[in-house]
């Protein structure tokens, strides 16, 4: 007989909680399934179907997907959405500078300034769009009036194709600043002041401190903002719709992917093709977000 003692087989620990974890997680899982997974699955099913004017579904195979590659409005809508998203993303470095100024030591009324910057975030998007539409008006708008003071004739901001996209992008950039400033201000408060004091002893000035300490330690917050700002940019609709309107002659050259989805689903009543456009938007957002997560290893510092 071997001298080694025969080890008894180990028993798996019993789950004393039973089904209680599943019971408590069930409402959350059911909500995610109903409001997230089921709409995606329904959209996929609708993309293979055609719908009659009074209801009814007919299997169409890949007909809607073939229509997507033949639609001449799709490339321009993708370009418009990408340009708008790129311009709105420029607000992040602007927000970094504003947040750095608002969190400086000795700045009086800093909380008041932060509240002022956050006010646009709690304003109604449609009201904001209508106010900016008046500001960009060709005849009596504030922008063209200021340009006329220096001898420049302002363009038709909301009725010319590329100018209208620029005007909407400027408003989108302005609207994205409040949330970015608040998030970055919170991130700045988490930077240990000892790091700035040590850098001062080494002879670093404010500019060197900003690029060597502030920006690197803010990269997690900046990365978070790039994610949510890009997603919101690819979902451009309400601002474009309110500023330009459906009867605008420049809408065909300025429409975004989401607006194109709206036009096909609710104006043309082509739900099958609209579902394909929705899946295209989902694919673009997913690929861009995945690319951001892959790239963040090179520039985001978590320590």
CA-atom Rg in angstroms: 26 Å
Q: What's the tally of helices? A: 14
Helix-strand topology string: HEEHHHHHHHHHHHHH
Question: How many runs of DSSP E, i.e. beta strands?
Answer: 2
- Span from first to last CA? 57 Å
Basic shape: globular
Q: Give the strand order, joined by hyphens, for the main sheet.
A: 1-2
Roughly what fraction of the amino acids lie in strands? under 5%
Helix content: 55-70%
Catalogue the unreliable spans: none
Q: Please, what is the average pLDDT?
A: 87
Q: Could you give a short account of the major beta sheet?
A: 2 strands, antiparallel
Structural class of the secondary structure composition? mainly alpha
Please characterize this protein's 3D structure.
- The structure is a single chain.
- Helix content is 69%, strand content 3%.
- A hairpin with a 2-residue loop joins strand 1 and strand 2 (55-59).
- The radius of gyration is 26 Å and the shape is globular.
- It is mostly helical.
- It has helices at residues 20-46, 63-70, 73-89, 91-102, 110-118, 125-135, 142-149, 161-189, 193-201, 206-234, 238-244, 251-254, 257-267, 271-299, and strands at 49-52, 55-59.
In short:
This protein has helices spanning 20-46, 63-70, 73-89, 91-102, 110-118, 125-135, 142-149, 161-189, 193-201, 206-234, 238-244, 251-254, 257-267, 271-299; strands at residues 49-52, 55-59.
């Amino acid at each position: 007989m071997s001298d080694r003692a025969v080890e008894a087989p180990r028993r798996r620990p019993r789950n004393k909680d039973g089904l209680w974890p599943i019971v408590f997680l069930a409402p959350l899982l059911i909500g995610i399934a109903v409001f997230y997974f089921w709409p995606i699955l329904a959209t996929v099913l609708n993309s293979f179907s055609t719908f009659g004017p009074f209801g009814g579904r007919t299997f169409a195979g890949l007909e809607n997907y073939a229509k997507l590659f033949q639609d001449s409005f799709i490339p321009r809508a993708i370009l418009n959405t990408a340009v708008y998203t790129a311009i709105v993303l420029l607000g992040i470095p602007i927000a970094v500078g504003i947040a750095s100024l608002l969190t400086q030591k000795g700045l009086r009324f800093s909380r008041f300034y932060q509240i002022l910057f956050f006010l646009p975030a709690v304003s109604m998007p449609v009201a904001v769009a209508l106010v900016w539409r008046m500001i960009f008006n060709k005849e009596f708008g504030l922008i063209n009036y200021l340009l006329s003071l220096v001898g420049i004739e302002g363009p038709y901001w909301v009725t010319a194709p590329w100018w209208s996209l620029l005007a909407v992008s400027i408003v989108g950039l302005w609207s994205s600043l409040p949330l970015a400033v608040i998030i970055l201000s919170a991130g700045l408060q988490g930077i240990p002041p000892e790091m700035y004091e040590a850098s001062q002893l080494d002879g670093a000035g404010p500019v060197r401190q900003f690029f060597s300490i502030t920006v690197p330690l803010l990269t997690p917050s900046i990365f978070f903002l790039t994610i949510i700002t890009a997603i919101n940019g690819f979902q451009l609709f309400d601002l474009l719709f309110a500023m330009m309107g459906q009867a605008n002659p420049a809408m065909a050259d300025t429409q975004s992917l989401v607006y194109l989805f709206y036009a096909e689903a609710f104006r043309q009543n082509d739900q099958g093709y609209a579902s394909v456009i929705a899946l295209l938007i989902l694919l673009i957002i997913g690929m861009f977000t995945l690319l951001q997560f892959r790239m963040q290893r090179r520039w985001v510092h978590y320590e």
